[in-house]
Design a protein that fits this description.
alpha/beta; about 45% helix; Rossmann fold; single chain; about 15% strand; 9 helices
């Protein structure tokens, strides 16, 4: 398998740590680059930051919010992307209800009520079997603290303002893998099924007993899917 640079884009209030297990397991075939997206206020700025770290051609993987950034990279520099992985993400914009919920979180943060990821949120993020697994949940808490309130605000604003990427899907002609946890509540399975249906050269991988945080919940299965994709 030829060696590649793999640009991995993390999700909301995630750092490089979300991909730690994939980076190590794929080190024999890929040099992984993970930009710190939380420093930027728009999806476009995040895309430019990622491109600044990337070589002329590269493989691209986006998890959750990182998927939104991946679509923006395709808008700006599709010729640079050799293959695409969309992990627990979606091409659709936020619903009015989702935007309202995000703005409420921003209002809470402005008055000093950002406390990272609370344990009460875990049922939305991970499969019920993983709620008490510290190896999965502690990195989620730690990453949120590292990104902090200001980073959280920047990322939420960027997500609210993101473009609708559904029209782009039929034009994607590079090897693509769409990966999703079957019990993902944040970006549910039908969103991934829709993306895979519209991307001609794509494969859908559904991870069983897995919520939204597949890089942490099912690291070996996710890595195996990425390794197959990198060999295409």
């Amino acid at each position: 398998m030829p060696r590649t640079t793999l640009v991995l884009l993390p999700g909301l209030i995630n750092t490089r740590r979300v991909f730690e297990q994939q980076i190590e397991a794929l080190s024999d075939v890929a040099d992984c680059v993970v930009p710190e997206l939380w420093h930027h206020e728009t999806i476009g700025a995040m895309a430019e930051a990622a491109l600044a770290l990337a070589p002329p051609t590269f493989s691209l993987g986006g998890f959750s919010m990182g998927g939104y950034v991946a679509f923006e990279i395709l808008r700006r520099a599709a010729e640079c992307v050799e293959r695409l992985a969309l992990i627990d993400t979606q091409a659709t914009p936020d619903s009015a209800e989702s935007t309202k919920r995000r703005r409420a979180l921003l209002d809470q943060t402005k008055i000093g009520r950002f406390h990272g990821v609370q344990r009460t949120l875990l049922p939305q993020l991970v499969h019920r079997r993983h709620i008490n697994d510290a190896a999965i949940t502690q990195p989620i808490f730690d990453m949120a603290q590292e990104v902090g309130a200001d980073g959280f605000v920047r990322e939420q604003r960027a997500i609210i303002d993101r473009a609708d990427s559904r029209h782009m899907l039929v034009d994607i002609d590079i090897p693509t893998v769409v990966i999703v946890g079957r019990q993902d509540q944040v970006t549910p399975l039908p969103r991934s099924q829709e993306m895979a249906a519209d991307i001609a050269n794509s494969r859908l991988v559904v991870l069983e007993e897995c919520g939204h945080m597949s890089p942490l919940e099912k690291p070996a299965e996710l890595t195996a899917a990425l390794r197959r994709w990198l060999s295409q």
